[in-house]
């Protein structure tokens, strides 16, 4: 009787397992360090997993590295913030279905005493020209991220090749760059989201904001399955749809640090 009972119990358990919902394949997301280090993904993705059953593996790097992972088929979708690089990614056949997701802006930060005197300036390129002229310490991410690409465009607008003694290119993400800038008493360009997340830990102040050239839009783009047929395109599309849905956009707008909103959802903007 015991053997029969065990057999029946085993059959019942097997039947329940057979009826259980199959495990959904992992979604691999390459994204910028700003979305990770600001805490945004830690806010969004657990809710996404709870609602859909999909787990998401996040690979946080600069935009250049994230797009390269997409080109190599190492991820299912990307979330980045460098429009010119994203256009090349899509035009080159590596990405499909680009969608506006959200935006914030870049800001220039530096010592609270502001020895270079850039506080209150309205032109970010002219502020960088001032920093170079005074050989001020400037810490660059130097990693081909969206922030670094924006920084290089501002130096170009200023007509300057940043080779002055105080310029330090460190090849790091935004968080480490801010920490080093604070330690050295220097200046840097940062996205506002990471700045707000780190502000309380740094001996820095926001010195310049509001230049239209500092606008910082983010997109979410699927990696092209025609190039990489084994991608989890179905899961990637579920995540993309969720992020741009009314619900996902509301969650992005609700994300804040110390009462300050870090990103503004804008999926209603046509790509």
UniProtKB/TrEMBL annotation:
It comes from the Bacteria. Keywords: Signal. It holds the Pfam family PBP_like_2. The keyword Acetylation does not apply. Residues 29-246 form the PBP domain. Residues 1-20 form the signal peptide. This is Substrate-binding domain-containing protein. It comes from Aeromonas schubertii.
